[in-house]
Amino acid sequence: MATSATGPSVLTRRGLLAAAAGTLLLSACGREEPGEGDPVRTVAPGGQELLIGVSLELTGPGAALGVLQRRALDITLETLNDKGVPIGNLRRNVRLEVRDNAGDARLAARQVTELARETGVHALLGGTMAETSVALATVAQRERVPFVSLGFGDGIVLPLAQRTYVFKLTPDGGDMARRLARLIASQRLRRVAVLAQHGLHGDSGVRATSAALRAAGLELVSSTRLPRTGENFRRAARSTAASRPDGVVVWATAPDSAAAVGALRRAGYDGPVFLDAGAVAEETLQGGNAATMEGAYAVHPVSLGGAMLANTTMSALLRKDFVYRYVQLHGGFSGFAPYASDALQLIADAARLSTSVDRGRLRAFLQNQVTEGMVGMYSFTPIRHGGMDQGSLGLYTVSSGTWTRVS
């Protein structure tokens, strides 16, 4: 039985999910009907809402992912407020206070400090960039407000003793790196280079990939860092190509991911490219990027290629409805988009289970949630706040301009 380093086995979690996911997700959307003998729940009057502060990169370097999250929130907010979220003896509407942090960590920190102290939000979510998520996590911990991060980077929730109010939905770096290393080894490639994004996400990727390659018996021939988003990647790409690798791991979120692959191709490297989950956004395969990315591999939650469970499960039905509405509104769909939807539903479900909007109670119930979301399976525990199960990850390749699952 496969096990993780920090919790029970994936199979055990899946067993729990089979029993609980339908009920949890159905109630999280506020769709359950009262049973005989249940107390009558009335809609909460104004001022008795579940109030959530949101800080996203709607402009600036993180907008490729941040805009997707805002779109997802709008869809899920409408679903939740169709009947309200049952919390105690009331059905509360959910209200979002959304701020654009423009990819600026200091601005993000100021925004959520105001939301926590003056607006009185019950929970926080956001931060698609590691830097903004870490800034948000610091404020959330200081103000004791539960925060669900959408960013990549293991340091967002570590060390746990200093992040007791912080939770992360994206996959852990080690889980992604090990999947990529196994894929590289299966293709009989031996010499591997890493081209990693500037900043905390790149730091996490270099550490995780170096360890995973070493464990798989592969040689790391070079490790090069990209400059900041928007700067010229030519020098970093040439340095990577000059090491003559058999394969290159590009560890970067969009839009840097496609830009880095393009720079590698222009530098003369024509071998296989392997990407972490942060590389995937709608713009990654748009326009001229589609030809550049053809044949690239990515590790990503299986939401990229379809629902995880049979189409008759509640989570799959909810995801199908979400994707349909998203495509109707925006004309295309990215597997990264539902992260914010899952975050919003997890917070709403914690409020329902705790029968309260008290920040401390929300935190306590968040850290004991085991559920399947639209992106993947989450199993938070008091000693594990990075809740994406490694069993939720799949491998994809770009074929004819679309992501195709290979395992």
TrEMBL record:
User: Is tRNA processing one of the keywords?
Assistant: no
Keywords carried by this UniProt record: Signal
Q: Where is the Leucine-binding protein domain?
A: 52-386
Q: Which Pfam families match?
A: Peripla_BP_6
- InterPro entries found in the cross-reference section: BCAA_transport, Leu-bd, Peripla_BP_I
* Top-level lineage group: Bacteria
Q: Write out the similarity annotation.
A: Belongs to the leucine-binding protein family.
Q: Which PANTHER family match?
A: LEUCINE-SPECIFIC-BINDING PROTEIN, PERIPLASMIC BINDING PROTEIN OF ABC TRANSPORTER FOR NATURAL AMINO ACIDS
Tell me the protein's name. Answer: Amino acid/amide ABC transporter substrate-binding protein, HAAT family
